[in-house]
């Protein structure tokens, strides 16, 4: 069975169902199995006992599938055997002695697109579900070689699932993908993104961040802020790899501003917030949880987009998509126009904490590369 919105190219060997039709089909197959104690994971309660009439109706609806599963059995047995193939482990009669082969799978095209989009948008649970639960182990490496286009912040990126994770600086995502890939393929995709010298790539990003913020370093005013935002937008669209050093540089400038300076309270909204809005999905998750909590309190990343620093807990992406003039501080709090947020961070500056976080993230990415067969192709990765 192929779950797709487009017809299968092999109509004689496959049956195509839309995602909604597949959900209905699965629900009825659970019904066939007699799961009358309820199925909490589907969000439904107790199912009424099955009657012969119900089985006849379901067989009429799904005879095309059931006959492919076990053509030599009776209609009711065909239906039960279909349910066994779909919902393995259910307590039904044993048909193991009879030949019955069934492949329930999502189309490769749909699966690859969903995988790449989930990787770019930092949805680790969906990525793991597609790879582990919906893809045969022997097909995972091939799936992870597929290139697709995905969108984040209204900007399109093209690459594989791994490359989307690398674009985002998502070290946990890259680490999760690495065991399912051929080592040479992992390294090839890595080099397509970073080149053969990861340290040199990071240094280029740091220099680019300093150059983008150069006029803000000299004098912050509305004119320099406008020019920075224009340059930042062009830079992000032209460079697929998220540059976290831009945000670090901005926070370092913010640290040095005098509390009573004319533009002190305008700086975050005019410069930091535009950079936060154009951050990768993975970085948005860090900002939502709070850089302070992650660095100073060693809190593990919970991979949520809900802002942790206030109530109600707003999804940071809803702010990114809005015209709200604010910024998110290092504690995951929304600070409005004229607000400031440097209090309560102890001796560590905001820029220093972000620097510490980025050092940990880049080192972790380097370790993941080194773990791919000890990185024989590229030995200049940060350890």
Describe the structure.
The protein is mostly helical and 383 residues long. The protein contains 18 helices and 7 strands. It has helices at residues 19-32, 52-69, 75-86, 108-120, 124-133, 140-143, 161-168, 171-177, 183-194, 198-212, 214-218, 222-238, 245-256, 267-277, 281-289, 291-296, 316-320, 350-371; strands at residues 2-3, 16-17, 105-106, 148-152, 155-159, 327-328, 334-335. The strands form 3 sheets. A 3-stranded parallel beta sheet has the order 2-1-3. The longest helix has 22 residues, at 350-371. The two termini are 45 Å apart. Mean pLDDT is 79; it is low at 35-51, 88-106 and 375-383.
Q: Report the major sheet.
A: 3 strands, parallel
Helix proportion of residues, in percent? 40-55%
Question: What share of the residues does DSSP label as strand, in percent?
Answer: 5-15%
Measured between the Cα atoms of the first and last residue, the distance is 45 Å
Instruction: Count structural domains.
Output: 3
Query: Got a strand count?
Result: 7
Q: Give the overall shape.
A: elongated
Low-confidence stretches: 35-51, 88-106, 375-383
Counting DSSP H or I runs of 4 or more residues, the number of helices is: 18
How much is the average pLDDT?
79
Radius of gyration: 26 Å
The succession of helices and strands, N to C, reads EEHHHEHHHEEHHHHHHHHHHHEEH
Give the SSE map.
Layout: E1 2-3, E2 16-17, H1 19-32, H2 52-69, H3 75-86, E3 105-106, H4 108-120, H5 124-133, H6 140-143, E4 148-152, E5 155-159, H7 161-168, H8 171-177, H9 183-194, H10 198-212, H11 214-218, H12 222-238, H13 245-256, H14 267-277, H15 281-289, H16 291-296, H17 316-320, E6 327-328, E7 334-335, H18 350-371
Parallel strand pairs: 1-2, 1-3
Antiparallel strand pairs: 4-5, 6-7
